[in-house]
Write a structure and sequence with these properties.
Layout lengths: L1 H65 L2 H9 L9
């Protein structure tokens, strides 16, 4: 009797682990496909971000020489907001 109960329990645990393994494998496959779909969009967004940072840097360099209050105000408006100190 004891062997049959142990065998049943171990078979159930093995089946549960097999199902969990299949679920994890499917999730990995789906997430990998989603990542492959999003990678070109992310690359394009990063390229545009780098272009905009370069542009802001050029405008800041120009403003250092020209001292325009309008440009200074615009540059201050696009600066990232700092988190309040705790």
């Amino acid at each position: 009797m004891k062997c049959d109960l142990t065998n049943t329990v171990l078979t159930f645990v093995l089946g549960a682990l097999a199902v969990a393994g299949v679920i994890c494998a499917l999730q990995t496959i789906f997430l990998n496909r989603e990542l492959q779909t999003l990678t070109p969009t992310i690359t394009q967004a990063n390229a545009k971000l780098m272009m905009m940072r370069s542009f802001v840097s050029d405008v800041s360099a120009y403003n250092a020489q020209a001292k325009s209050p309008e440009i200074t105000r615009l540059l201050q408006s696009i600066q990232p907001k700092q988190a309040p100190a705790k």
